[in-house]
């Protein structure tokens, strides 16, 4: 393929005909060569072609770059919420900003290589006077969600009786063809999401496009040599629940790239903070401590390991994004009710994210028996228990040690019959006063987390109480409007008396 001559913005606006284009020394190239050449330029310049996609820097992105350099069609295989479609959409940035096409053509036809009867006839008749127009790279991306009702006519095309009648043409004339989505994506990127959902006979219709690079439409002898970059996405769950990718089609997709969930909480936090749709006013009103961000990510980690959650379905990154938005909204609502200009998110706000969890996880039979709400609440509790030993002494280990323990003053106060009620809607002053009632909390935090204590001391106090209840050192009763902490033994005796 000849070397491509870059045409700047001013020049291409002046170029209106094939002759003018030829005079500029412009040479067309295939979509795959275009992607490859622009990727090489970005890599040499040290520019990442896939900005804003975190956690794939050393795994998925290098594999995709190698596939583009090899001029391969690509299949992204992974569970839901793993940025498969986002990767495909960002490939647009590797296309040339503008390319020329034949004016009036139904497809984006290369003036140097027309493929339809209309394009071929126009170039033969008008030669260098053939009018051209310029299309932006954003117009060269087509995306289709595979559903069971998709037909060959939708993707490839079929004869159009209305067009035949209007043009007074016989059905033997190729000009009566109504092109489907794939031909209309000529010289562009065509994405099929959830490929296994396509019926097997529809997948078979893609064989020739991938192998020979052309299509056939029933009843016509023509073969359209399409120029396409195919990107497919699939969820492994689909192979058993709804369908599968037929083996010959999978064999024709040169590169299969496995995606994955964030491999660390830090990466998960980057994704959540980037994707959360918050108003500027919300960010100004609500302060969210890093601990709460970690806890939200840990909820997803716990869900991905829970025996109640269907692991084949996966736990989307959309869970943490929605949960973070719910957390901020819970704190914002409290600030509005208390007429406060600023507030901080609390541990109790984590239990307001239940709707974000129940709608994002698929439960197995045992989980359905437990109930979505109980499973969601359990995931939050497990997240608290999992992160607590990273900040404070592990209560589980301390149970086996004799002598004075760091939690003794706190437990003694509750053991004397004291209870603590923390209202979900308490104003900042009331919240601080409630937590100040428990002796030993401040000393514990100053001893083990002095750096965090100044800014987020109240949050840590509440965190300690919730964690001690998860380690069965305190009793916790959660109502719609408040959380009550009590001594564990006295709560058990009181329960027996009521029984």
Features:
499 residues, 3-stranded antiparallel beta sheet, disordered N terminus, alpha/beta, single chain, Rossmann fold, 3 domains, Helicase, Ruva Protein, domain 3, disordered C terminus, 5-stranded parallel beta sheet, elongated, 26 helices, 16 strands
Tell me about this structure:
With 499 residues, the chain is of the alpha/beta class. The chain folds into 3 domains: 250 residues, Rossmann fold, CATH 3.40.50.300; 129 residues, Helicase, Ruva Protein, domain 3, CATH 1.10.8; 99 residues. Helix content is 46%, strand content 13%. The protein contains 26 helices and 16 strands. Strands 4-7-10-1-11 form a 5-stranded parallel sheet, with helices on one face. It has a 3-stranded antiparallel sheet with strand order 14-16-15. A two-stranded antiparallel sheet has the order 2-3. Strand 8 and strand 9 form a beta hairpin. Helix 16 packs across helix 20. The protein is elongated and about 100 Å long. The termini are far apart.
Average pLDDT, rounded to a whole number, is: 87
Counting structural domains, the number is 3
CATH topology of the largest domain: Rossmann fold
- CATH top level label of the largest domain: Alpha Beta
Low-confidence stretches: 1-5, 492-499
Helical residue percent band: 40-55%
Strands, count: 16
CATH superfamily of the largest domain: P-loop containing nucleotide triphosphate hydrolases
Decide which structural class fits the backbone: alpha/beta
């Amino acid at each position: 393929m000849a070397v491509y001559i870059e045409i700047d913005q001013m020049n291409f606006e002046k170029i209106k005909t094939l002759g003018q284009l030829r005079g500029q020394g412009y040479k067309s190239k295939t979509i795959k060569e275009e992607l490859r050449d622009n990727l090489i330029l970005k890599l040499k310049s040290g520019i990442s072609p896939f900005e804003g996609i975190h956690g794939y820097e050393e795994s998925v992105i290098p594999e995709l770059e190698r596939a583009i350099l090899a001029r391969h069609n690509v299949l992204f295989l992974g569970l839901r919420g793993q940025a498969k479609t986002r990767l495909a959409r960002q490939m647009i940035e590797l296309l040339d900003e503008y390319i020329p096409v034949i004016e009036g053509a139904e497809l984006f036809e290369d003036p140097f290589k027309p493929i339809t009867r209309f394009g071929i006839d126009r170039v033969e008749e008008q030669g260098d006077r053939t009018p051209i127009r310029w299309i932006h790279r954003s117009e060269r991306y087509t995306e289709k969600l595979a559903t069971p009702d998709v037909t060959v006519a939708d993707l490839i095309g079929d004869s159009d009786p209305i067009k035949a009648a209007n043009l007074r043409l016989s059905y033997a004339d190729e000009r009566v063809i109504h092109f489907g989505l794939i031909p209309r994506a000529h010289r562009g990127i065509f994405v099929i999401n959830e490929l296994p959902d396509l019926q097997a006979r529809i997948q078979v219709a893609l064989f020739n496009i991938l192998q020979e690079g052309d299509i056939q439409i029933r009843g016509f002898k023509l073969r359209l040599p399409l120029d396409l970059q195919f990107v497919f996405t699939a969820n492994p769950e689909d192979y058993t629940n709804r369908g599968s990718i037929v083996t010959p089609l999978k064999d024709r997709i040169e590169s299969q790239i496995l995606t994955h969930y964030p491999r660390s909480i830090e990466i998960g936090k980057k994704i959540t903070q980037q994707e959360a749709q918050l108003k500027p006013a919300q960010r100004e009103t609500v302060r969210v401590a890093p601990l709460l961000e970690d806890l939200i990510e840990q909820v997803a980690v716990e869900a991905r390991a829970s025996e109640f959650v269907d692991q084949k379905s996966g736990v989307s990154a959309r869970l943490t994004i929605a949960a973070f938005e719910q957390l901020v909204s819970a704190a914002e609502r409290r600030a509005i009710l208390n007429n406060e200009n600023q507030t901080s998110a609390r541990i109790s706000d984590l239990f307001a994210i239940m709707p974000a969890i129940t709608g994002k996880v698929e439960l197995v039979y045992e989980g359905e028996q437990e109930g979505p709400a109980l499973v969601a609440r359990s995931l939050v509790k497990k997240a608290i228990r999992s992160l607590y030993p990273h900040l404070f002494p592990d209560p589980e280990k301390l149970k086996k040690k004799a002598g004075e323990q760091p939690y003794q003053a706190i437990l003694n106060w509750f053991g004397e019959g004291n209870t603590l009620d923390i209202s979900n809607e308490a104003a900042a002053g009331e919240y601080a006063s409630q937590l100040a009632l428990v002796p030993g909390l401040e000393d514990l935090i100053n001893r083990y987390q002095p750096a965090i204590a100044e800014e987020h001391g109240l949050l840590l106090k509440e965190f300690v109480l919730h964690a001690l209840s998860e380690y069965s050192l305190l009793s916790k009763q959660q109502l719609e409007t408040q959380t009550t902490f009590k001594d564990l033994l006295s709560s058990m005796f009181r329960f027996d008396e009521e029984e």
